[in-house]
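Listing S7. Sequence submitted for prediction.
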Amino acid sequence: MITSASEEKPTIHVNTLGGFSIKVGDKEITDNSNQSKKPWCLLEYLVVFQKKDISPNELINIIWSDDPGVNPGGALKTLMFRSRKLLEPLGLPPQKLLVQQRGSYAWTQEYPTVLDIDQFESICTRAISQPHNGDDILKLCLEGLSIYKGDFLPKSEYESWVIPISTYYHSLYQKLVYKTVDLLLEREDFSQITSICQAAVGIEPFDEEFHYYLVYSLYKDGHTSQAIEEYNHTMDLFYNEFSISPSDHFKNLYKTIRSKEQGINTNLDSIQETLREEASGGAFYCEYPVFHDLFQLERRAIERTGDSIYLCLLTVSDLDGHVPKLAILNKAMEHLNYAIRNSLRCSDVYTRYSISQYIVLLPTVTAEKGEMVLKRITSNFRKQYNRKDLRVEFKLQPVLPWERSSESAIPL
């Protein structure tokens, strides 16, 4: 059998997602080397736009956009030489890979080249638009996710031509993750959802839905402590990076996890062991959904006991009453948290209420004692973080007893 010359030519595989590499058979070059950036930039641009001839002016504008004083002609010729040197380990003639003809530059058409972004886009187009949810679609989704190892050309992420392309493929990736998770939820394959979402938050740490399904899948797969740990990590991440908390939808998931039934257990020693708190000093910090339930419990208690309890609000602001800059606010809230925890009794409860506020429950105190406690907190805060452009304001208000309807009242 006679084989044509075109069939004998090796296929060049180019990866651009999560890093840049070119592979021919078992030979590969990557941008992980300490080589200068510009030769790689020329390679990236010509490979990505391999289907067209590129003029010298276009390349000069792309590569030396921040250096108008460069000698265009000489610099481009030198750069072409250096880029071809990078290709030598592949075992193919570099002059046949980076082609210069008719006054323009191009990536080879002589050797077939496969780009991961083309494969990824083709899979996304087929998988995301499919209305049915068969095993073949799930297989296609998983194949697409295996291709997306990270964002497009991460070492060139701030180049003007890279940004819109990276955004496009990143958006496709998010849609593909959502589609895959939906398919796996139908199959209750929580272990695989966990793996996919762990990879997804590594690539896009600020997508709340990725975190939500990671926490949910851990919880449904029986890893409750890991789910709570991941939830707390997400809360800290969103507070520290954006000065916001995740949505109520996410917080309700936490509440569901906390209220999970423990199953039948008649051994009280065992139950107490599972309920035991790790030893820690100071007041009890909890997430807002837990604080909400404790607040309701205290309201019910004072209806019967008549004890006084105060709800206290501490707010960090600048001297004009505005939320401080993020870096300053994060540090201030960290010190305020420490001051609250170490200024209260171990039976007192507090939580973070907003980006710049904590709320505290002070049972069995008078208004005067409550104000003394809050002054002690602000004083301890100042000892740790004494900035003249910040202030901590506090308010306190008595908690009113729970109002029971006459139909539900039970004689005591």
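Caption to Listing S7: primary sequence and predicted structure tokens for the chain studied. The two ends are 99 Å apart (CA to CA). The CA atoms of residues 34 and 40 lie 11 Å apart.
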